[in-house]
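Case study 2.
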Amino acid sequence: MKVAVYPGSFDPITNGHLDVLKRAASLFNIVYIAVARNLQKSTMFTTEERLEMIRGCTTQYENVRLDSFDGLVVDYARQVGAEVIIRGLRALSDFDYEFQMALMNRHLEKKIDTVFLMPHEDYTFLSSSVVRELVKFGGDISGFVPTNVEAALLKKIRR
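Prediction:
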């Protein structure tokens, strides 16, 4: 059985993330979406809120599990028995950082590979930070995030 981990902050999850997840779910028996609990990174949503948003837009995947972690992703991958870490690549600018991280992860755990998946070209410009910025200034985010995530973003902004 092939198990993969798709780690990220997912603050919030976007249609680009979901496109990568769809691809990963078709390739692996089990995919863990692992929300990073990074205490040094300021997030708009709590870990629980991010997991709830993800839960609301991933129910169609029987082989997707939701979880959160802190620390090194390779340690988490070992913990759940994953052989693969999934990373999305939107543009060449992502590659340098992701390449360095993949090499470091391989150094830390030779049995865990990194697989890079590209989202559909409609989402290559899309990031959580772009969505957060857009919604703060009243922009239309309906084409960039699922409806439950849009509702959560609008509710958070209106507070």
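The longest helix spans residues 92-108.
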